[in-house]
Amino acid sequence: MKKKLLAMLLALSVVLALCACGDADGTPSGSPAASPASSPAAAPSGEPVPSEPTPSDSAGLSGTLEVWSSGEELGRFVEGFNQVHPDVTVNITVVPNADFIAKLTPTLASGQGAPDIFTGESDYVKYLVDSGFWDDLRQAPYSADTSDVWDYVASVGTDASGALRALSWQASPGSIMYRRDMAKEVLGTDDPTEVAALLSSNDAMLDVAAKLKDKGIKMFASWQDIMNMQFSNRAQPWVVDDRLVIDESMLDFMDMAKTIAENGYDLNVDPWAPEWSAAVESTDTFCYVLPSWGYQFVVKPAADTTKGQWAMCQGSVPYVKGGTWLGIYKDSPNKDLAWAFLEYCCLNSEAQQAYAAEYGEYVSLKSADQALAAGAGEEVLGGQNPFAFYNEQMEKIPSDLMTAYDGTINTAFLSAAKAYATGVLSKDDALQQFKDDVANAYPELTID
Amino acid sequence: MAKPGPNKLNKSRYGYLFIAPFFVVFAIFGLYPILYTVFLSFQKWDGLAPLAGIGLKNFQRLVTDKVFYLSLWNTFRIWLMNFLPQMGAALILSALFTFNKIKGMKFFRAAFYLPNLITAASVGLLFNLLFNGDKSVANYILTGLGVPGAPFSFFNSGPFTSGLVSYIQWWMWFGYTTVIIMAGITTIDSGVYDAALVDGATKLQTYTKITLPLIRPTLIYMTITSIIGGMQLFDVPATLTNVQGDPRKSILTTSMYLYNQGFKNHNYGYASAISVGLFLLIAVLSVLALKAMRKKGGMYDD
Q1: Mean pLDDT score, B130-143
Q2: Mind listing the pLDDT tens digit for each residue in A27-82?
Q3: pTM (2 decimals)?
Q4: CB-CB: which of B49, B100, B133 is closest to A269?
Q5: TM spans, by residue (chain B) (predicted)?
């Protein structure tokens, strides 16, 4: 009798344990990676087309090019590149962003097995730009002409001495992506210009949030998304002359975050949580504050019943967030191949137009974006053309405020803002925690 | 006259040759990185610029670094809160399994072991999905049951998050510990039990007076490997929140701290110093554990 009871108990605990295991298998992999897996279209086209008008100076390029990239997207250029340079094999090694620096630095330090081209994402691109491991692209043999590149993109790739170390095929201007149906119901209009006028300052945004709340609608998916926009309000970057600068606007943002959290203007989840992603199809979430890649990776793929109900407009301030830059390793033995590929991705307007038309990604050349702005609008956006909208934003974005310290400092600031917004720490304590964290990460900085 | 000499010499040479592969691999992938880490701990290095020797500065900073001590305390607390229940559960389960004939014992043993086979990173992510947000599974159930105060911001609470890491570690490892202890128990000569039975010992007496002392080597082994593994805890807390040990560093373990100092903040020299400090601490703890468990020293120690 006793044994039966025992067996039952054990069976019960097993069932519980198995339930937990079952969850592990059944849960859709909602990976919080910044760039969701997009099916790589890097299959090299089988037949090189001999009749292709090959530029005479690049004819005869052959060899193997090693590229390390933190995302899959770069591979999408290979097929087109191989039509121009059929004899060049492009080997793209994708290293996840979280491990990228850990894999790259020992390789660069030892010089053994370093790739010809490697990428750098916005969180640490300045660290690589300042390190001097990328060649200056304005010098011979490259002599890059960047007149068609959005200033911001070139400025991020430029180091303190003015040397251009890296370029990008993408640009990532910011936006507020909102629901037209809810805007009409609560604000009386769904026109992007008119909605933008109602969101033209932080206070105005909070007023709208209060109106939405009366109708049972959450204004934001997560207040943490707004942080990237607020960074544009700063007069100076985080670090100036080895001194930490905490701009007044950052303190205002902490209060804004607290207002949002206390009044329940957002879903109270972290970005990339399943609930955050699901808000695309919700009946109670008004907007995402995300840059151009947010449309491509978050809104567009998930919009089904809400197709045509989305639109994008400017918020309280224009901003940029994200992007992947690439540069040529200074001791690469294949600089001619590396330059041919980099030029194809970052400076060839036709290649970028074909790429952007296929994948909907906003690109780094003005002429390509302008050509695409003339095209038809997006079905998901109710006919709005995102390229036209983002072109306007690129004209307005403030100067480049990126530093080599941004990745760590942004995370530390978000942590402190969260502690204050959720009422765990007072503002002074939260700020002290932020300063301590920065001092701990970068002891060489002066902190007041 | 010259015959026997070379033969003997050859034999000893072959011996070295046969054990060489392990030592070569260990020297390249184990010893060299360890020594290089010690070397780096006396340098200032951002990963790309040339090394700069700065003597003991990294260690001076280490002994006054509050975050380092906090991370040590976090790691130790998470380990202890997982180790004690884990040993308790394993001792009870192994006793049940070995002293009772339970139907499907092998199945249960395998099922308890199962969580150990899942990648720790997936487990961290899985538990994040269960508890993150007002509409998470946990909050959905609690709200449905009408629990006052629900939904909860689970990951805003340091004690909860820290406790959750301990629980996950327990859940993943108690099956493994059970299996090892069962293996230890089966090596005990059944004659000893028969003698105890004849003398009229109760089951409890048999367990505490015979089984436990006889499996002490197994317990020592489990404790020391658990200390070493536990003090290096990284994957579960790193994937559960944001690698910074949020909320407010409550689950920032020493390994995460050294990872952030090295690979996030590019202070490779200081990260190496943390790693050397952690190594010394684990060595000391292991010796203490060994001494403590051998204190009553008996004939069965080896």
Answers
A1: 83
A2: 333 333 333 333 333 334 443 444 444 444 455 788 888 899 988 888 888 888 88
A3: 0.76
A4: B133
A5: 14-35, 78-99, 111-131, 167-188, 268-290
The average pLDDT across A328-336 equals: 88
For residue B100, which residues of chain A lie inside 8 Å, CB to CB? 3, 6
Record: contact B118-A21, CB cut-off 8 A? yes
Question: In whole angstroms, what is the distance from residue A403 CA to residue A442 CA?
Answer: 13
- Which pair of structure tokens corresponds to residue A86? 């059929």
pLDDT, tens digit, for every residue of B97-125?
A: 777 777 777 888 788 888 888 888 888 88
A290 shares its domain with A425: yes
Looking at residue A90, which CATH number applies to its domain?
3.40.190.10
Give A-chain residues touching B90 at CB under 8 angstroms.
none
Phi then psi dihedrals of residue A27, to 5 deg:
-70, 125
Is A267 in Cβ contact with B153 (below 8 Å)? no
> In which domain, by residue range, is A180 found?
174-318+399-441
Are A414 and A333 part of one and the same domain? no
The 10s digit of each residue's pLDDT in B183-220 is 888 888 888 888 888 888 787 888 888 888 888 888 88
Pairwise CA distance, residues A300 & A307, whole Å: 8
Residue B267 C-alpha, separation from nearest chain A C-alpha, in angstroms: 8
Is a pLDDT exceeding 70 seen at residue B140? yes
Report whether B120 contacts B235 (CB < 8 A).
yes
Nearest to A109 among B48, B136, B260 (CB): B48
Say yes or no: A238 and A297 in one domain: yes
Within the 162-221 window of chain B, which residues sit less than 8 Å (CB to CB) from chain A? 171
Token digits for B198? 């004849």
Distances (CA, A) of B63 to B66, B69, B72, B231, B255: 8, 8, 12, 18, 17
Mean of pLDDT over chain A: 81
| Structural domain count, chain A | 2
Instruction: Rounding to the nearest 10 degrees, give the CA dihedral for residues A370, A376, A379, A385.
Output: 30
Residues of B in contact with A275 (CB under 8 A): 133-136
Q: Do A415 and B129 touch (CB under 8 A)?
A: no
Tell me if B247 and A20 make a contact (CB, 8 A cut-off): no
- Distance of alpha carbon A359 from alpha carbon A292, whole angstroms: 12
Does residue A9 lie in a domain region?
no
- The residues, any chain, with a CB within 8 Å of residue A335's CB and separated by 6 or more, are A116, A135, A141, A328
